[in-house]
Amino acid sequence: MARWRLSARLPMAAMAAVAVISTVSAAGPRATAAPAAGPDRPVIRYTEYGIPHIIASDWEGLGTGYGYAAAKDNICTLAQTYLMVNAQLSRYLGPDGRASPGEQQNTTTNLNSDIYFQRINDNRVVERLLDKPAPEGPEPEVEEAIRGYVQGYNRYLAETGVGNITDPACRGAAWVRPITELDVYRHAHAEIIMGTADALLDGEVNAAPPGAPAAAAAPAPPPERTARKIRDAMAAARRQSMGSNALAVGSQGVSGGTSMMLANPHFPWQGKNRMWQSQLTIPGRINVTGGSLLGFPAVNIGHNDNVAWSHTVATVAPFGLFDVQVDPLDPTSYLVDGAWQRMTSQQVSVDVLNKDGSLGKVTRTLWATRYGPVTASVQGIALPWVVSAHAVRDVNMDNLRALNTWFHLDQATDVHDVVNTLETTQGVPFFNTIASDREGNALYADIQATPNITDEHAQSCLTATGRLLFYQSLRLPNVPPVSVFDGKRSECDWPDDPNAVAPGLLDPHKQPRLIRSDYAGNANDSAWLPNPEQPLTFPRVMGDMAAPRSLRTQELLLTAQNRIDGTDGLPGRGFTPANMRQLLFADNSRAADLALDATVTACRNTLFGLVVVDGNLVDISGACPVLAAWKSHKYTSDSRGSWLFENFWAYLQNGQAIEKLPWRVGFDAKDPVHTPNSLDFGNDVVRNSLARAVLALRNAGIALDAPLSSIQNVTRNGEKIPVHGSLHELGVLNVVTPAMVDGTVDIVFGSSFIQQTRFTADGPPEAYSLLAYSQSADPTSPHYSDQTRLYSAGQWVPERYTEEQIAASPVLETKVLS
Hints:
The chain is an alpha+beta fold. It is 29% helix and 24% strand. It has a 10-stranded mixed β-sheet, covered by helices on one side. Strands 7, 8, 26, 33, 34, 35, 36 and 37 form an 8-stranded antiparallel β-sheet that branches. Strands 13, 14, 15, 18, 21 and 24 form a 6-stranded mixed β-sheet that branches.
């Protein structure tokens, strides 16, 4: 039975679904009565920066408004996403193009992506889930909203016409077409499994049995080497994929309110994982605003009348590997419980656009075991199919429950309701959840779809490689512990737990959560330390404990504690909307706090300022005054010396765990937010890293004291927009990761939809938000870069949430979908 709740604090004007609003036309503003939302009349009200406020009388109407508005802003991005999940990228865009099926950008070819998704489609994975009752299948309200979404998307496309689409990325393209409900569910499923796709897609579609008997093939590499390579590859991938910060502050940490919430996801700036902002209202049933992944007719991160929440990427590996011993003379047979079993083979075919414009077909044979598909690699590291093969089990392959999860979160009444939703749906795919409520509670919860790998099960079933991976990975912050189990024993499969929602899931009551009245936060480290006053314990499958925190986690926790204590230099104690926004966009570097002074000392102590590195004699003396003058430690656009320090830090860390750097004071689990510290300025690696950074900047023609704005910016329609912030590794909360995109520098991921919400004892929530890359990917849209300029200037958008606030917008425009 669906358990949707009525909101206790909906504005009276919204409950009546009638308001007096202002609209803007070419002739100027005029007062008019808003059409009443009815069964056939969803209404979209646009306020500043193209933010749509969608009101309808039912879920289908709400979905219709969402689908229409989302397509209007991002039709090309959405259309290409539907092309991907229907395995047709190669047919229309060629097999050699690059696809982004997971968290990262362009990780595989169109052809490999198509083979992967065609197998899922041939196996009717999504259709089988749709046939199941809730909670494994979608609840009725979800079905209604997605039915409406399809109608809204298709209506916009029919009204506009493919040839009249303003975005040149898909104007007139044959692959832009009306969609079906199955397209939307396939897209949702692709988002849910994306935590596995980056690591294993190529390995699954390229796995093939050896051409010679296994006994004659080269021996497999030793477990230590394989484990180290996989661990390092996972760590490198983690540094190049999305993450987030989130901070919930309870009644004891707020000045002038009952609680506050800061949502700061670091999602991609391009492609299917862009976020998009909207408000969704059914009078008397739901009123929620925030950001969602494109194509999801719900709010994934946001607030309603009583609860605000966000997600951060967690340290649970959403997949596991099973090592199966194969028959040397028949490597498609494998041993289980002393008996040989046959692998299943499957022919998967996709259409391919040939270079001469004709259509061809590519067919591959894919293999699977009782545990799941066979893979030839993980995160690009080869897993040779020789004496054994490796099979994949993905905890989210049978997960559409996430849709139910977000529909419930959109209507949560307090943080206890949030926990109940997480436990009863277990749909969150690889995220933590952080929330605050009107009653003054701050919540951290890592309750998600987790493989049922208890500590005892891991001890019994891990292989030699698996043992090294599962436990050694815990020494690298943010790197999930990957399991490799003994596939020769059926007892080593993930067991079913009677308390879990679906087979193979960990009991949700064993998963960590914390409710406090001061604060709880996460910055992509494990669940061990959402608040230093109350460390958590949990099964190791969920991450590390009593291990160093990343510099970004340190910065988040110190920022929270210092603000509550009033020791951060700002007036007063506790969080206010102004100082929470100020602290996020301060762009302070925890790495600079810990190491800048020592770096300057090392520079000044270098004899004659000369260092020999990599066969080059480098004069670093010019770097000393530049770094010494960078007293703010901030990555603001006007900062000088920050880019030099960023390069220095990259050479110094060189992919190592933070505790491996030359600190004089090592990590202490009793003081995890202040240790390690005191960089050893006498260590040669410090001055050598600085010399490499100086050499790199000089070779690139960049002055050592160049302002950050001259280097880190994005170009929108010929306009260069400076971007402040920096890399995760530098301990900057406002993460941005620049790279080359289509021949120009852009941000590949970083601060995306940002929202700060404050609750008081009564009255509506007070919130500010910002979508760093703006609402639309269409360069002809007025909302292509308007919020990007705000982000550049460190400004936020005051949210319009109540009917009165929406009606007061000086740029209000209304679209009635009658």
